[in-house]
Amino acid sequence: MSSPVSQESTRRRLSAQQAETVARLTDAAVDVLNDEGFDGLTVRVVAKRAGVAPATAYTYFSSKSHLVAEVFWRRLAEGVPDPDPALDPADRVAAVLRDVSLVVAGEGQLGGAVTVALLGTDPDVEHLRLRIGGFIRQRLARALEVDPENPGPVVDALEMLYAGGLVHAGMGHLSYEQTSERLVAAAHLLMEKQS
Questions:
Q1: Could you give the C-alpha distances from 21 to 25, 67, 81, 87, 127, in angstroms and in order?
Q2: Which residues form a coiled coil (predicted)?
Q3: What domains lie within the chain, and their CATH numbers?
Q4: What is the pLDDT along the chain (195 residues), one digit of tens a residue?
Q5: What sign does the CA torsion over 181, 185, 188, 194 have?
Q6: b/e for 82-115, b at 16 or more Cβ within 10 A?
């Protein structure tokens, strides 16, 4: 794993060996989630599945919510590319929202776990929540070619759309694929109103 995301952690910069350990832990977390659900997930169980000492796992992750939030952050950062400048703004926005909403599609119980984890109060989760929100805001601002530091009301509305859509999907009311379709339709509607 050589992507910049694989070399960072909420707590510190990682060596290649540390990055491999974190990757094993995050992969094992998804396996445990699919087998045991969020209630059965613990840092200790994940450490055992990854072949890592629990004390080592806790040096990287303060809680199971932190671990799940890290999984989501990594999937998001690696799975949501910069907007395609060849597309018109509405299609760029739609692509960003589609990519964000599909990051955990087909991942078993990961989506619901992400919803629970990101609503937690763990300081490491809060750090990741801010990083995730900033990343999505930046992608949406780039799609609209506006300043991410002051993106305006359209980006604010789009952020509300995706946050509500992902919580809705995480609660199991819609699949992530259905959520993606609705987010894209809502984004197009919002963009039409702005024209």
A1: 6, 13, 25, 39, 21
A2: none
A3: 4-61 (1.10.10.60), 68-193 (1.10.357.10)
A4: 445 554 455 556 788 898 899 999 999 999 999 999 999 999 999 999 999 999 999 999 999 999 999 999 999 999 999 999 999 999 999 999 999 999 988 888 898 899 899 988 899 999 999 999 999 999 999 999 999 999 999 999 999 999 998 888 888 888 889 999 999 999 999 888 776
A5: negative
A6: ebeeeeebbbbbbbbbbbbbbbbeebebbbbbbb
Task: Say how many residues make up the chain.
Answer: 195
pTM for this predicted structure = 0.88
